[in-house]
Design goal:
With 32 residues, this protein is of the alpha+beta class. The protein has one helix spanning 14-22, and strands at 4-6, 9-11. It has a two-stranded antiparallel ribbon. The chain is elongated. The model has no long low-confidence stretch (mean pLDDT 56).
Amino acid sequence: MSEYIWGGRAWSGTQAFFGEIRGRGIFYSVAG
């Protein structure tokens, strides 16, 4: 999957996937 820049952080893989289903631009991280 592609990397996503949200909240000034670069997300990739599963974190980006879950972040997108929760809402684009919304800070969400499965790692906390």
